[in-house]
Amino acid sequence: MKTIRTAVVLVALVAAGTLTARAQDPLPSWNDGPAKKAIVDFVKLTIEKASPKFVPVEARIATFDQDGTLWVEHPIYSQVMYCLDRVPALAKAKPELVSVEPFKTVLSGNREAIAKLTMPDLEKIAVATLTGMSTDDFQAEVKKWIAEASDGRWKKHYTELTYQPMQEVLKYLRASGYKTYIVTGGGQDFVRVYSEETYGIPPEQVVGSALGTQYGYDKNGKPFLTKEPKLLLNDDRAGKPEGIHLMIGRRPYAAFGNSDGDRQMLEYTGAGDGARLMMLVLHDDARREYAYGPATGLPDTKVGTFTQALYDEAKRKGWTVISMKTDWKKILAFEQ
Amino acid sequence: MKTIRTAVVLVALVAAGTLTARAQDPLPSWNDGPAKKAIVDFVKLTIEKASPKFVPVEARIATFDQDGTLWVEHPIYSQVMYCLDRVPALAKAKPELVSVEPFKTVLSGNREAIAKLTMPDLEKIAVATLTGMSTDDFQAEVKKWIAEASDGRWKKHYTELTYQPMQEVLKYLRASGYKTYIVTGGGQDFVRVYSEETYGIPPEQVVGSALGTQYGYDKNGKPFLTKEPKLLLNDDRAGKPEGIHLMIGRRPYAAFGNSDGDRQMLEYTGAGDGARLMMLVLHDDARREYAYGPATGLPDTKVGTFTQALYDEAKRKGWTVISMKTDWKKILAFEQ
Asked: Containing H/E element for A62?
């Protein structure tokens, strides 16, 4: 009896699902245009059994850069904010840091001076705030910060600053049998803490810059892993295809990015046979989000550089550039 | 109409599936006993909604060592055979190796001398045969070798030498919502070539010792990855939990091994809360397979050392030792 009842429920679900799918646009936050068309055409071409470019479900891999592609990266990567926010707690545990640069500057709270910190300064802060603790403690700290911290412009949690149109692409691809991966220059351990809740992407489908860990035991003999200041994978630029090979072992069929850091990932994706989708998000909407980088005709910034050379390569190779201004009806979910 | 027909087919499949599952033993090659009971109890405890130790489906991760746990490792790891078999082709491409050790010994075909090669010798051979080519070329070579090579005792392809009882565990866990991973000291790129076909485990669920790759372009500007002689992950002993953290980012609920190389993976698994399953395969059946290692009372060999210390730790911590002799009705699928 139970079996029959289950089956009846299933019938209802299947019927409802089919009808809904027919009626709904999978990408409602996208304006009609070449970008939306490129996505829909790619999906149809690769999932319809009769298509000459059909891709078996196990090979359907799609990779997404995170910062500037799935969520806001301007004016500063949120992981950098995390590291800066951790400095006071760090100084409490290690008082000798209070008088040492660059920690002294961060503790001063002087925003102008903090904005001027150099890359080597930020690296010192990253090593100090991202290593030396157990992986469990790190996860707990990030979880707490993500739940509490908010950005300077919208006063929202960082996880609310994801792009609605890209959330729709993630869901649409998954509904079409694609495994969606984040492939980020950011920290793998950091992004994994919130990826499932924020993007529906489980930790094992997050590829990012990764530090080594060291296995050991606490005083009760319980094993744990300590985060070490040893870079295993610098998942940016050429490191992205290298990271994809290491962590996934298959070439993606679709890849999304927004900067020169994603160039090699898109090239590697495009070098496969059959249908491939390569897309770049261009930040050209200063009113609703931000406009920056040479390809917009504006000066470069500290985040996601989209150079003219990348723009030219995209045009030459038939990659699709997504204009946030013209292709996206809505950028952020809370936008009016 | 099509929807209704689909639903009717679904009803039939659901009903059939439920009936079949009720009638069938998921582990028919296992004798009744504590090992089989441990597996079945663990699965029930973690997948039944009402269980106090219920595990949500997304957290259901099970990890398996390969050599000696999923397939035969004695008298020599098959990847070592691959490397030795590649030496003639390598010497053809690089004639200067013909007179250089350890290549000279391998080319001599003298089995006794080859068996005496030291670990540094084998490492030299591994570096020479596993690096310097593109990842695509490497995959093609392994695929060819796997399809052609056979073992010395049964004269079967290596992929036929998998343990039938463990194949049943893999399928049973997957049918229970578990993601099954290989976590091997062997080469990640090597195992990924045949893992899907042999174990139903996709390449992205193979964690293994991994060499770095280098992104570059061929003369036509097409990008490719070259395998480099740079060890990124030594996925053995403490490297197993470290590799699991890097590649999966979650602690397994079940872990299977057969040697001291798996000790830390089992400890790490067992240190989690809720129900956890830790199992070790003991090679104690010289007639149907092999018997070796201190825990069997027999001398140690070059493969999968199962020491008395590991055996004692297993007993102390309540891990289950699987006796191939008494727990397995059938070891190899082709066994009469």
From this structure: strand A61-64
